[in-house]
């Protein structure tokens, strides 16, 4: 239809779909290269990159206690957000990512809205996440969305800061 602009859509997708696989590779490459450049002054070595991508299969983002959401703009897969249930009332946000070319176009808001809705569907009243200190853009998005720093709820080599948000009822109209 003439004059109709493409819009963002978000839908659940298998972690091993072609779109999800390509977005996982892009996400992992970006965060890995950022870490290696900061720590060693060079990007991730190809073998290390392939091992890291293969190591995290995304199984925790499969049903019945997980979901991977893929955001599309005009039909093109440009981002992801994963949600997994940790317990009866707490869900964890994982793999929030938009391709660099898609940033600043409203996709982050659409993805975060969908992730919060998915957490509520799992019975979640609280959404938590961990991230690295150098992922400043992601941290700004979380704070903008109402997340606040919380004590560590897990540990690992790349978990440096933790955030949580109490989920109210779904906003009117959803």
UniProtKB/TrEMBL annotation:
Protein name from the UniProt record: GNAT family N-acetyltransferase
Keyword set, alphabetical order: Acyltransferase, Transferase
Lineage: Bacteria, Bacillati, Actinomycetota, Actinomycetes, Kitasatosporales
Pfam families, per database record: Acetyltransf_1 (PF00583)
Keyword Amino-acid biosynthesis: no
UniProt-listed Gene3D superfamilies: 3.40.630.30
Top-level taxonomic group: Bacteria
Domain N-acetyltransferase: from-to ranges: 22-168
Keyword presence, Cell wall biogenesis/degradation: no
InterPro entries membership: Acyl_CoA_acyltransferase, Bact_Acetyltransf, GNAT_dom
PANTHER family linked: AMINOALKYLPHOSPHONATE N-ACETYLTRANSFERASE-RELATED, AMINOALKYLPHOSPHONATE N-ACETYLTRANSFERASE-RELATED-RELATED
